[in-house]
Structure formats: structure tokens, C-alpha cells
Amino acid sequence: MSTLTQQDTFQALFAASPENFHSIRNSGKESFLNQGIPAVKAEEYKFTNISKKLDNALTNFSTALPFEVTPSQVKSALFEGFEGDVLVFANGAFLPELSSTIEGVEISKLSDKPETSLGSIAKASKDPFAALNQASFVDGIFISVPKKSQIERPILLLSFNKENLGQVIQPRVWIEVGDFAEVTFIDQSISLSDSAYFVNKVVEVKGGVNSQISYYRLQNEGKNTIEVSNIETDILKDAKFTSVNISLSGDMVRNNLSLNLLGSNSEGNMFGVYLLNGKTHVDNHTNVDHTIPHADSNELYKGILADQSRGVFNGKIFVRQDAQKTNAFQQNNNILLSEDAIVNTKPQLEIWADDVKCSHGCTVGQLDEEALFYLRARGLDKLSAKGLLLYAFAGEVLEKIEEESFHNHVVNLIQERLGSKF
Amino acid sequence: MLSIKNLHASIEGNEILRGINLEVKAGEVHAIMGPNGSGKSTLASVLAGREEYEVTEGEVIFQGKDLLELAPEDRAREGVFLAFQYPVEIPGVSSTNFLRTALNQVREYRGQEPLDAVKFLSLMKEKMALVEIDQKLLSRSLNEGFSGGEKKRNEIFQMAMLEPVLSILDETDSGLDIDALRIVSNGVNKLKSDKTATIVVTHYQRLLDYIVPDYVHVLYKGRIVKSGTKELALELEEKGYDWIKEEVDSAATV
């Protein structure tokens, strides 16, 4: 059996790549071959040994084929109270016949949009997995929200995934949002089987001037799902982009989230909760690039780790020399519920401008025993008291989700996991 | 109602309580006084079930039940209430939600129906008036950003909501100005009945002008070394604790 350190493992993926996006694929492949799969000592993947994980867990490193999804599967995947439009995917392939048409929004398969400048936002040179996707994705989706349109109903990107002849799924999403437009996306994947597969996802978001984009994401897949995602956005003048990422399950998950603040008075928000148990490993690598003056970024990630789970947080804030009057805030707090749980947290600030406000902080601790006793002394049983405290801890992030039905859905999932309802 | 016999308790191997004996009957108010470090707060904590303390000897019977066998929440459900010396700030937990969950768990234990939102709110309104607490405070996170006086008032409000049989006030008066002290004491006095009892742990006699005790006990080095009526508190106010320390320490050396 070949291993990932031998690059011929990937030849099957390259060989099966479609003909379209020829030069983009070629540069992706070249970039991938230059970078290689991250070695154990690669700084960016130091705490997340994805190569070893893929080696051990996957037997068939070729594309998992699309499959048929039934309307009832779609219906049962929708959470209570959801009133929005749904775009359905099977192993990364867009299924228009099961998806909504959304008035005023252009939606196509990427293969029907060969002029799309894939890789211009999430650059292949920055991450080997982005490069691998760029070289060998099968198809994906193109979403364009026109100028000045306010899309009131949220758009749910609903992906069904499973091993299907192959084990590699490479979704590719291109979103462009016109000037002054507003839109909310919810990104959710459903595992249809417990067998191992690898999702290597790239989402590029090109926001217009004064646009307002929310991108909410729920990661609650099967216990054997391995996932790497690269989500990257360009934020122009007066625009706002908010990401809320909720990770609840999976085998090994690595999220690379990059916000490029390219226009003044722009705002980038990155929020996340990881509530993990078993042996789940979730790594959030975020990167915000302040390139111009007068832009703000806010970041808050909270982790609750039980059993032998592991959380990794790496928050990079880059403030370029021109980016005076930057406000950049970052916070990562963790509660460990077991002696075997591990968190590695690392703020990484690189500041070249001299008139900025930047702050960062991280904490790793246990549940506050004094608070627990206080609640119990009022008659709350231990489980409820713990649940209430942990829920309150995560709540600061959850309240950033402005879409009500999704907020309630996430709250329910989290309360269920914490073993209590309030 | 409460019978404490030869209670010994220690924390991290240091013995703090060294043989407490105390009988409290329904309708009574007992004041526990004593110099700093005498074990007053430890006694309150042990009764409420704080787990850092290890009871090494003795027994506590509360309404016929072995209190020391019960988890803290079950003591609360049986009717023991501790007003904390330092109420804990808990960001993100709404006072109202928390109290409703707590009250309904207590009611369930006592075999009562849970209160629905409407009944809960009307009960809250009634008790808020009793302890003169502002609705605004209760719409915030539990104790978060409250002043010292507001925290103590919130303790008495929770006490009013949970309707305990035995209330233990751990230095509820410390740090309060006269107005706040009057409000808190009024609340406690209104909640008293011939079926309930109160243990007031305090360093100062001042509180006892407002909450008048039937008995005053002086705790020193983990034992009750003197008991009397409210006049004993006034004597302590006048003369301090030194004379009692001397009495006890000289008796010990003889």
C-alpha cells in the first residue's frame, strides 16, 4: 500500500480530474506538488497530524462518487422552524433537481461557469489541501447574489456525504455577493454512513462594497469523518462578514478560515464553539489580514472538551504597515472536563502598524467549582448545574447567530449534549 | 429541627471545627459570633454541604434526617438555605431562568407541581417587593456586576423564593451600609415564622439590632465557648473578643 508521503497516492485523483478549468487545475497541481502533504513537523499542522490520520483511516484514496438523494432525506435533514432555501449536494456534487430556485440569485454548477476565477481568493499556494482541491475537485457550485439585493431567507447548503466507491470528497463553493447586498448562509453536512471518508472543502466568498454576509456552519458529522476545509473571503470597503462555526463531532477536523480586510471601515467577525467528546479532534486555524486602515476584526472561540478529545486553536492576526487605526480583538477560552482532554491554543499576532488597538487572550481551565456549589446549594442537581454553567459559557458565542431557527437548532443540540434543558 | 453533635471538620488536613454542639428549634433565631478564623463560615459551609470540607466526627440531624449524608442540592430541597458570604457571579446564566429551574427542581423533590411561567412570574413579583429588589437586577446575568449590597439582597430574594425551613446567613451584613442592612434584615424578618429557624453568622453585633436573636453563641478555635442571649452580643460589642479568648486560653493551660 502506498502512503501519503508518496505522492503517487494522489495520481488517481489527478488522473480522474475533469478537463475544465485546465490552467487553474494545473497551477493547483503544481502548487500541491511543491508543498506536498504536510509532514509531521510542518508548523501549520503541528498539532493536527492529518497525514497520519489519512494514511491510517483511508484505504481508497479516490473520489467518492455522487449518489441519489431522496426528497424525504432532504426534508428530514431540515431543522425545526427553518424557513429558507436549500441547496442540496451529494458528495460535493450539486443536485439542482432537489434544490430551491432562489429569486434574484444566480445558481449554477461550476462546470457551467468555466470563467470563474477559482483560486483567486483561497490561494493554492497557502495550503496544500486548498491546492489539492483546486487540482482535482470534480464539480461545485457557483452562487451569485446581485448588487443591492437583500436576501431575507437564509440559504442552506445541505451536503450529504458517504463513502461511495472512493473515500475522497472535494466540495468547491464559489460565492459572490454584489455591492450593498445582504445574505446569510448556513453550511451543514450530514453523514449517511459511519465509514471513514475525507472531505476536503474549499469555499471562496467574494464580498462587494458595503455587503453584509453571514456564514454559519455546523459540523456534526459521523465519528469517522476526516475533514479539512479552507474558507476564505475578501471583504471590501464598508462591508461586513461574520462567520460562526459550531463543531460537535467528527474524527479529525481542520478548519482554515481566512478573512482579508481589503477596504476601510470593513468588519470581519470569527466566532466558534467546539464541544467535543470521545476522540474527536478539532483544529481551528483562523487568519485575519488587516491590509488597510480603519478596519475591525473580532474573534471569539470557546471550547468544551470531554473524554479524550482534543482542540487546537491558532488565531493569526496580521496588521500590515498601512493598516493604521485597526481594531483587532481575539479571545479563546477552553474548559477541560476530563484529565485526558487536551487543548493547544496559540494566538499569533504580527503587527507592523503603530497606531492600532489589538488584544488577545486565551484561557484553559476547569469548571468553576464555586459556581457549581452555588447552583447546587439552590437545589439544582449536579448535572443540571454543570449543564447550565457550560451552556452559559458557550452561550456568549451562540448569541452571535442571528438566524433564529438555526440558533435554536444549535442550542438544542448543545443542550442535548450537555444533558439538560433550560 | 437541627441537632449538631460533636461536629469535627477539617480542610486539607487542618481541623477547623473541633466539636460543635448546637440545638436549634423551630421559631428560633441563633446568632453565631466569634473572632476571625474561629470557624463560623466553616460551620455554615459544612451545613450546606461544601465538598472541600471533610467531616471527621460527629453528626448533624435535620428534621430527623442525617444531613451529612445528603448532596448539597438535596439539603436545599429539604429546606436548608445558605446565604453566601461571597455570592458567585455567573456570567451568561440569567437569574430568572436559573431560579425557575432551581425552584421547580425543589418543588419536584417536595412532591409539588412545577410552576408555569405565569405563576412563577407572579411569585417573583411578590417576593421582589418583600426584599425591595429591582426587576432590572434580575434581568441580568446572575450576580454579574452587582454591587456588594445588591448581591446580598439577591441572596435574600432567592431565600424568599425557595422558602427554606432553616436559613443560614453567612456574614450577610458584612460590607452593607445602614440602608441595605435595614432592607436585608426586613426581608429576613418577614420570612421568619414559628415553623422556620434562622442561624445568623456574623462578626458584628450591629445586625442583631435588626434581626433579634433568641440565642447568641461565641465560636472560638472551632468550639462554642460561650452561649447566652442577645445581651451577650452587646457585651461582645463593648468589650471585644479578647476577654473570651483569654478565658478560654487560660482554662486550656491550667
From TrEMBL, chain A:
Residues 11-155 form the SUF system FeS cluster assembly SufBD N-terminal domain. Residues 164-393 form the SUF system FeS cluster assembly SufBD core domain. InterPro entries: Fe-S_cluster_assembly_SufBD, SUF_FeS_clus_asmbl_SufBD_core, SUF_FeS_clus_asmbl_SufBD_sf, SUF_FeS_clus_asmbl_SufD, SufBD_N. It comes from the Bacteria. Coiled coil: none annotated. One of its GO terms (biological process) is iron-sulfur cluster assembly. Pfam families: SUFBD_core, SufBD_N. PANTHER family: PROTEIN ABCI7, CHLOROPLASTIC. Belongs to the iron-sulfur cluster assembly SufBD family. This is Iron-regulated ABC transporter permease protein SufD.
Automatic annotation (TrEMBL), chain B:
InterPro entries: AAA+_ATPase, ABC_transporter-like_ATP-bd, FeS-cluster_ATPase_SufC, P-loop_NTPase. CDD domains: ABC_FeS_Assembly. Pfam families: ABC_tran (PF00005). Residues 2-246 form the ABC transporter domain. Keywords: ATP-binding, Nucleotide-binding. GO terms for cellular component: cytoplasm. It comes from the Bacteria. One of its GO terms (molecular function) is ATP hydrolysis activity. The keyword ATP-binding applies. Belongs to the ABC transporter superfamily. Ycf16 family. This is Iron-regulated ABC transporter ATPase subunit SufC. It comes from Algoriphagus aquaeductus. The lineage of its organism: Bacteria, Pseudomonadati, Bacteroidota, Cytophagia, Cytophagales.
